[in-house]
Amino acid sequence: MTISFDTLLEQRNTPVLLDGGMGSLLAERGWAPPELPEEMNLRAPETVAEIHRAYAEAGAEIVETNTFGGSPLKLMHRHLDSRTEEINREAARLARRGCRGALVAGAVGPLGTLLEPLGPLSFPEARDAFRRQIRGLLEGGVDLIQIETVLDQREAKAAVAALKDITTAVPFMVSFTFENHGRTVTGFTPAAAAAWAEAVGASAVGANCGVGPAAYIPVVEELASGTVLPVLVYANAGLPEDEDFWSPEDYARTGVELVKAGAAVIGGCCGTTPAYIETLKRAVGSLPLRNPSAPPGARLAGRETVVPCGNGAPLVLIGERINLSRKSTLPDEVRAGDYSGLRREAKLQHQQGATVLNLNLGLPDIDQQGAMEEAVRTTEQTAPLPLSLDSDDTEVLEAGLQACTGVPLINSVNADIHALETGFSLARRYGALLAVLPFTSEGIPEHAEERLAVVRSVLQRAREQGFPAWQLVVDPMVLAAGADFAAPRTTLATLRGISGMGLTSIIGLSNISHGMPGRALLNRVFLAMAAAGGLDMVIADPVAAGIGETTAAADLLTGRDPRGRTFLASMSGTQTTPVAEAALEAPREGATESGATEGEEAEARFATIHTHIVEGVLDGAVEDADRHIRQGTNPLRVINEGVLPALKEVGEYYERGDFFLPQLVASAEVAQRICECCSASLEQRGERQRKATIVLATVEGDLHDLGKNVVATVLRSHGFDVADLGRNVPASTIVEAVRETGAALVGLSALMTTTTKAMEQTIRQLHELFPGLPVVIGGASVNEAFADRADADGYAGDAIQAVSLVQRLLDTASR
Question: For the whole prediction, is pTM greater than 0.90?
C-alpha cells in the first residue's frame, strides 16, 4: 500500500523526486493547439498514462495529473466546461494507472484571469471554479492536491478554500512563481508565502516555473529559513533551441545546490522530460536534507512584509485609527463611499511606526461586508503592512479574509464553543492568526485565575480540533481602571499567565485610561508594565505622543532589541520610511522658487497629478486634471508634463522592484482616466491627436492573459489606442483586426512553451500580409533568442519594457 504524502515527507531524510513537464511530451505524441492538453485525457488516455509511467520509471515518486488547465474557466474555451469533473477524474485515474506506486498529485494551475481588483474575477467565482476541478480530482483518487504556478496569493487562497469546502483530510502543496526580483508579479515574497502556507495548513510550500533552477536558489533559501514545512522546487529548462536552455546534466548539477539550499521535494517544469528526472535522481537522490529552522512561531504577513509575533520578537504595534466607532470624519466619509480619509490614516500610521493596521468598519447603517472589502484594498494599496480584521460579524470577517493578502489577524472571538470553532475554521481556511478573548456567554471572569482557566479550556478545544497553539493570540482583557482600580492588576496577572503558557498575547491599550484624566500618561505606563509582563502585541494609536518611544524602549529593556538599534534609531530620528513610501512623496502645488527650471516649474504645476498617479489614487485625479484644463492649460501639456513624467517614475520603481503589479496597474488606471479626460477636451476643441492603434492578443491555444492585460492597461495610460483581442486568438482573427483597425503594431503573448509554435506561425503570417508591420512578443515562454529566431521585431519582458519598445519601434517607423 502506498504511504501518505505527509508520512513520506516525515520519514525521508533525502529528497523526494517530483515528475517533469507534460505539454512538450504531449506535443511529441500528437497534441497541438487549439486543442487543450487536458482533452488528451479523453482522446488519447493511453498516451497520457504512458507519460506518467515514463516519469515513474525515471524515479519520480510524485506524478502530477494532466490538469494544469483543468478548471471550467479554461475548459469553456473549448466548450468543455460541462465536463470539468469528468476530465479531472479521468486524469487522476490515468496517473494512478501509469505511476506504478508513486503518489498522485492533482495539478491545479492558475485560472488564467486575475481576481478583483487586478482582474474581473470575484473570489467566490474563483473558489467555485476550483471546487469543480478539485472535486473531479478527488473523485479520481489523487493522494494530494498541488496548487501550482501561483502568481496571486489570493487565487491560491481561493483554491485552498475550495478544497476545504469538500474535505480537510487531503494534504496539499502550494507552489508560487517567483521571477520579479525574487517575488511574484503581484509582489508576494517567499517569506510571506512560507508564513501563509503554514497558517493555512499546507503540507509543503515552494516555487515553480518562470525561471531556471539557478534563479531559484536564493528563493529556496528564503523559503527554507522561514518555515518548518518541506520546500519544493521545480524550475524551467527552457526551449531546446535557446542558448540559455538547461541540459539534463546542468539542471541536475544545479539541483544539488537547490537541495543544499533547503529543497526537500524537487522535480522539473517546462521543458523537462523523464531524462531530467532520471539525471536529477542520480545527482540528488542520496543527499541529506537540510535541517529545518526552529519553529518561527506566530507571524502576520502582508504582500511584502512579515511580522513575527511573540517568541522574543519585537513588540507588534497595531494601529487602531481606522475604526469607525472613533470620533473622526471617517464614518461620514465611508458612508458616502469616500475612502480617501482611510487612505490618509493608513499612510500616517505606517509612517509613525505601526507594523500592522487594524480595520474596524462597524457602522450599523452601511454594507459592512462591502466596506471591509474596500477598506482592505485601499489599505493594502497604501501601506504594505499586515492587517488586523476587527469585527464580531462572521460574514464581515470572511469578506475581509477573502479580500486581503498574506496572513491577517482575526480580531477577535470569545471563548464560547461555537465562536471558537467558527474562528478556528476561518483562520485555517484562509490562513490567519486568531485572537481570542477569555470570556464566555456567562461574562468576563473577575479574577486572573478564572480568566486563565478559560484560556486553558481554549487550548484544550484547539487541541481537539487540531488547531495549532501558535496560531492563537490571547487577549487578557483590558478594562477601564477608572471603573475598577483592581482591573489593571488582574489584566497584568492574566498576561503573565498567558506568557507562561507560551502563547502569544495582545491587548487593546486605550481601554485602560477610559474616563480618566492624563490618558496619554496612563496608556504609556501601562504599556511599559504590560511589556515587562510578556506582552507581544498592542493595539494602540501610533500617532499618540510617546507610544512609539515607549515600545522602542520596552523592546530594548526586555531584550527584544538586543543591540538597541531600533531604540537608538528612534531617539536619533534616523528611522526611514520604506522606498515605496518615499516614492509616494510628491512636491506640493507651487513648491518651486523663483528661478526654477522649466522642468521644475512643470513638476510643481502638476504635482498633485503626479501624486495621484504615483500613489495610484483615483479619487480626485480626473477632477484635478479638469481643473487645470478649465484654468487654461492645454490638455496636451497635462499629458506631456503631468502624466508621462509620473508614469516614467512609476516605471522606474517597477523596474527597480520597489513597485509590483498592484501598484503598476493602479497607477496606469489613474493615468488612463486622466488621459481620457484630456482626450475628451481635445475632441471638443477639434484638436484630437490620436496615437497609434495597437492590436494585442494571446496566441491560439494559450489561455493565459495576465501579462497581456497589464500591457494593455499601461499602453492605454500612455495614450495609445489598444485593440485587445483576448486569449486563445487564431492568427486569422488577428489578421482581420489589423485590417479593420489599421494597426501600427501587433503584440503577441504566450505563457506555455507548447504555444510558441502558434506564435511563430502568426508572426510569419503577419509579416507576409503586412510587410513592415512591427510585431513584438512577450510572455513567460519566450525570450530575446526566441524573438530573433521567430523573426519578431522585439521582445519585452514586462509592461514597462513593452511601452519603451513600442515607442521606439513606432518612432523609428515614423522617420
Answer: no
